[in-house]
Amino acid sequence: MWKGRFQKQTADLVQQYGESISYDWRLYPHDIAGSIAHARAQKVAGLLTADEFTQIESGLREIEQEIADGKFEFSIELEDIHMNIESALTKKIGAVGGKLHTARSRNDQVATDTRLYCRTEIDTITELLADFQAALLNRAEKYADAVMPGYTHLQRGQPVTAGHHLLAYVEMLERDRQRLAGCRHRLNISPLGSGALAGSTINLDRAAIAAELGFDAPSTNSMDAIADRDYIAEILFALSLCGAHLSRFSEDLILWCSTEFGFATLSDAHTTGSSLMPQKKNPDVCELTRGKSGRLFGNLISMLTSLKGLPLTYNRDLQEDKEPLFDSIDTIKLALKVNTEMTSDLEINRDACLAAASDPLLLATDLADYLVLKGIPFRDAHELVGLAVAKSNETKTPLDQLDLSIVSEHFGPDASKVFNLDRALAARTNPGAPSIENVRNEIKRWKKS
Ligand code: ARG
């Protein structure tokens, strides 16, 4: 494509080093859509006859079909998807194919293709997130009233329900969706017409091209449009955080499925055995998800590192944007699908959860609240209950069986009423708190949204 200035062929090693066709071929539908919009603008500007435009358009559509059918021969000598398609077009329709690249560079072309690709993938991932939320909601509904301990520092804290715990993940995934919607909004501008970096002396109708490709507007600075990969970094961050959410969910499930906790059971279809220990049923999907989050973070760091030292505008380093992007997108899609499936079959073991939640120490804070309602300042109440807990430990008497009046005269006979899980949960009615009624209302709200 640049033979005019060169006397020697590109070295084989350089071709091998610089090719991107082995992975950027997946941009082909977007590359073709961009080329057709660009060619149409050329026709309107009088640079192509109606007949030439038709030849270009149908040639490109044929190529698209050949690629979709796996019949297209990609060549690494042609480096990337843009040159592979353009060269195939010229082979197909002759010299007219050479007109397509007027007022265009691979720099604005690749920026356009990547934005279109990201937009499509964001839409898919947003749907997959909604599917995962639906699976969590379904389980939250089934276990809305399954009482379990809530933890801080992985030490038992206060009672919650499994439904409330699962809904926490629905919230996280909602923020993931919102973040992706923000990325989508910012990326939806058309770089086409920015050329190599400084536009072109040939003016095509950039607004019409943008509209045809579903962009909100053409970009407003040609140098920024060529150099900008913010949208990739943003997506990689959004997917990293989503990966962190999935990883925390995985960790919860790994703990819950251990014999020590025994709170949950995963289906056989979503666990694996051991080649040596016959009794094992391992939560590998959760571990893989936890592990793959590292990959998502790595891809973000790799993109940021590629960007940080680059002078404006295009530098070949930017070709390194694609593999991390593709990898994160593929990784999160599969992670979301498998987690959705696995969650749909998740069983919560109500008895084990209830037994753990029946530890009277989970209601120590409620006991302090009881004193507060009698007019004792919270700090003093906290200390008195702390003394009661120490006494319970010392005398090996469960807190709910201890004679609390030996600790303080403020504990009346009605103090024992505190040790009732149903009552404790039912009292947690403030917005966001885990009373079963609140949890059910939240499920209703999510189902409507
Ligand atoms: N394959 C290249 C990339 O992905 C396309 C742009 C090439 N531009 C250039 N000036 N060499 O970045």
Account of the 3D structure:
The chain has helices spanning 12-18, 21-24, 28-44, 50-68, 81-93, 106-142, 162-187, 206-212, 222-227, 230-257, 284-308, 322-344, 350-357, 364-373, 378-394, 421-426, 436-448, and strands spanning 147-152, 155-161, 189-190, 217-218, 264-265, 347-348. The chain folds into three domains: 12-102, Fumarase C, Chain B, domain 1; 107-203 and 224-355, Fumarase C, Chain A, domain 2, CATH 1.20.200; 359-418, Fumarase/aspartase (C-terminal domain) (Ribonucleotide Reductase Protein R1, domain 1), CATH 1.10.40. The radius of gyration is 30 Å and the shape is elongated. It has 17 helices and six strands. The strands form three sheets. The protein has a two-stranded antiparallel ribbon. With 449 residues, the chain is mainly alpha-helical. The chain starts with 11 loop residues before the first helix and ends with a helix. Arginine is lined by residues 20, 24, 80, 106-107, 110, 314, 316, 318-319.
Question: In a few lines, what is going on in this structure?
Answer:
With 449 residues, the protein is mainly α.
